[in-house]
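Minimal example, chain plus iron/sulfur cluster.
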Amino acid sequence: MSTTRETRLDDEAADFVALVEAESGTPLAACLQCAKCTAGCPVAARADIKPHVLVRLVQLGQRDEVLSSRMIWECTSCQTCTTRCPQKVDIAALNDALRRLSRAAGKVVGGTTVPTFNDIFLRTIRRLGRMYEMGLMTSFKLRTGNLMADVDKFPMMLAKRKLALLPPHVRGAAERKRLFERARRAGEPAAAGAKAGGEKK
Ligand code: SF4
Ligand code: SF4
């Protein structure tokens, strides 16, 4: 009985590793655990899981721990780790893939507003074709309830013309719609894979 259970868990782990490698396009098995990535990472000090540990956990197929980690949302995609890695492991791409899989699997850690920000950012680009900071900030504050954060900077940004009061007008709405639709379709296998992994219990 226990042998059957161990075999099933091994299969789950292998499926998860294969899915993450396919989604991130980076060779996780090449990692030496030298921790050069962590040594250069600007957010590692406050991360719940350091970058080199994250790679190790993925190698071990620790799906739930990885997909519900705060680190994948703290990552700024600065690519310092990717540049420093002697084995060409692309942790920035890994974190991108893990964020997609985390959302698809409903495993996003509580308390992070990054997915909300990303959604509003992409919706703004899709609708307007260019960033509209005023609209983004307003939507973000309403969605997160953090209405008063950074309001003291508002007059200064207006004075320096860093905030436009009116949204931009950019042509190409139909083309943008096609691009976003193509991107959405490209993400479907990831969502299906993550859900499939999560349903194996
Ligand atoms: S720098 Fe590269 S090889 Fe070293 S621990 Fe990080 S990912 Fe692994
Ligand atoms: S890309 Fe992310 S994990 Fe890599 S160094 Fe930058 S913040 Fe850290």
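The domain at 2-110+187-199 is CATH 1.10.1060 (Fumarate Reductase Iron-sulfur Protein; Chain B, domain 2). The two ends are 15 Å apart (CA to CA).
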